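Q: Is it fine to ask for two folds in a single conversation?
A: Yes, each is treated on its own. Send the first.
Q: Here.
A: Result:
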Amino acid sequence: MPFSDYQTALVTGATSGIGAATVARLAERGLTVHAIGRNKERLADLASQTGAIPHALDLADTDSLEAAIGGLPIDVLVNSAGVSRMGNILSSSRSDIDAMVDINLTAVLQLVRVVLPGMVERDLGHIVNVSSIAGLYNFFGHTAYHATKAAVHQLSRQIRNDTLGHRIRVTELCPGRVETEIFARNLGGSPAAIEEAWNTYYEGFESLTTDDVVNTMDFAIASPRHVNLGLIEIMPTFQVPGGLTFDRRTN
């Protein structure tokens, strides 16, 4: 069981959704878990419940990130943090695009840059990038989000090339719709937004849960050390990524 090979983990986006569930699972597995998030209160609650070591910081602040985790011997890195915005490139603002690039891509690159050399030196490590089916398929809206997740898809492949010959495993998880707070945050995060998001995106749908994603991650990490599960697409049974749209013009 490779979990017994590992001692420490680092999880981003730890204050909610997949990130919080991942912290809990890795702590249950006996790892010392460093949890990164921006909400100090939620981090404190998570730490008291799981024993995780909290790091309250903004992933877009690379200096703070390096200061907090630069010297840590991380065996398992889980890049779970992510942001999204409504609309496509025609309706996106400069701040919308900056936020998605900073968190969804730049922070992932910087964390890998900081953590990976230690893994190579120890000849041991596992990087899990929580991406999205938006990185594999094109569908309407969320253009910059698609672009950042597609970049994470390519990065996940490239890390394997960069570490060839070392016992470094890289898993990219590409979930479909998961019951998290992301849609409510897109709608403003108010109680009314939470209700609207639930009624619009989850009520009546058999969406994935955070447990579904974390169970899949657990399976990938627990696989024999000579096995690398590189790309795992996780979809609700009633959700499909395909479909052909053809817009007809009459003039």
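Q: Second one now.
A: Result:
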Amino acid sequence: MEELTFQIIFYVFAALVVGSAALVVLGPNLVHSAFALLATFFGVAVFYVLLGADFLAGAQVLIYVGGILVLLLFGVMLTHRIYGVALRTETIQFWPGMAVSVAVLATLIGIIYTTPWRQMGFAAVEGPTTASIGELFMNEYILPFEAASVLLLMALMGAAMIVRRRSDL
């Protein structure tokens, strides 16, 4: 019964993600496409939860929904006269694009049906994965973690120096 529930949730959110992604690509209104992208990002976060990757689901919601999408919406809504603009796409190469899309789809379907997939159960670790990720960062992977933090600090300092005016030097 539990596996059937997970399958139903998966198929419902798969339909949501595919439908909202199609609205992002095919939608004539930029604001509606941005809100469809919101539904796509939330659906992907649900997939991460179903896979037992709660840290990735949280990062998906915080980074993509909370940061990038909100920034995109503010940029669209604060730009004057863009709300009523209808997006027009040129369909000059519709048939070659359709042929390439069908070829890629056929290749992917062939790969899916000919690959011997390994079946795995649910995650062996019960509870949140953030504690184990934190322990790995602070024990086994402390050197790469600190190197990445120093690299990001140097990039931040470099960006601050670039935006600084020449008269301030």
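Q: Anything structural to flag on that second result?
A: Two points. Helices lie at 2-26, 30-50, 54-78, 94-114, 130-138, 142-163. The CA atoms of residues 45 and 61 lie 7 Å apart.
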